Amino acid sequence: xxxxxxxxxxxxxxxxxxxxxxxxxxxxxxxxxxxxxxxxxxxxxxxxxxxxxxxxxxxxxxxxxxxxxxxxxxxxxxxxxxxxxxxxxxxxxxxxxxxxxxxxxxxxxxxxxxxxxxxxxxxxxxxxxxxxxxxxxxxxxxxxxxxxxxxxxxxxxxxxxxxxxxxxxxxxxxxxxxxxxxxxxxxxxxxxxxxxxxxxxxxxxxxxxxxxxxxxxxxxxxxxxxxxxxxxxxxxxxxxxxxxxxxxxxxxxxxxxxxxxxxxxxxxxxxxxxxxxxxxxxxx
Length: 284
Ligand SMILES: [Zn+2]
Known about the structure:
Layout: H1 4-18, E1 23-28, H2 40-48, E2 55-59, E3 62-66, E4 71-76, E5 81-86, E6 96-102, E7 108-113, E8 119-126, E9 129-130, H3 147-157, H4 161-165, H5 176-186, H6 199-220, H7 237-241, E10 260-264, E11 267-271
Antiparallel strand pairs: 1-6, 2-3, 3-4, 4-8, 5-7, 6-7, 8-9, 10-11
């Protein structure tokens, strides 16, 4: 599943290739691709034709394109969705769900999705954010992210810190892997009750989250010049730089203690028992 750094790489690439252009025609090849759009496939295609794309934006793992009239094209990539830009004459692959051509006759945009969990939606903007995702909190790389507001809400939430980091209404864009990595860097146990966090610990955690996301972004490596933007491309970060996630039994890169794996929300939480001591009154 693409996380914030992968989606940001796609956003920047699409910003380069399709912002400033005007949509000519839209062909919906599989109605599931627009299943959340109340206008249906034909209505969606008709409403998108002739629209200028003025900006490519992102919040957390959500990606959208600003159009005219305070509307946006929202893309949710799901597990396997891709937005590919390329030669308009290339053959249509079996997984292309929707195709956008542009009035300049240049490269087209194709939404491909092997598993059809992703979808596209034309929607209104609400304070600059698509209405369907207006409840999603800013992510820590956004200018709109306010550290004091986050710290105060975290304190009131009274839950385990990892659970809070994955809660998109509190902070967006942090998946399971990045949560474990940030907690390892900040030396905080994943079950630490949020109401016991001191101000300095919250600052340390936010700094760790930003560092982890920024490093993953740098490792993304997708060239913006290539006429091909691939969201499934592994960022490379995961292979090189993991300190906690997936390292059960391997020595901690700081102290040598074997990394521990605990069950967590049907998944796992990885931590160093020495650097990230288990708290009293933990919220499991
Ligand atoms: Zn350690």
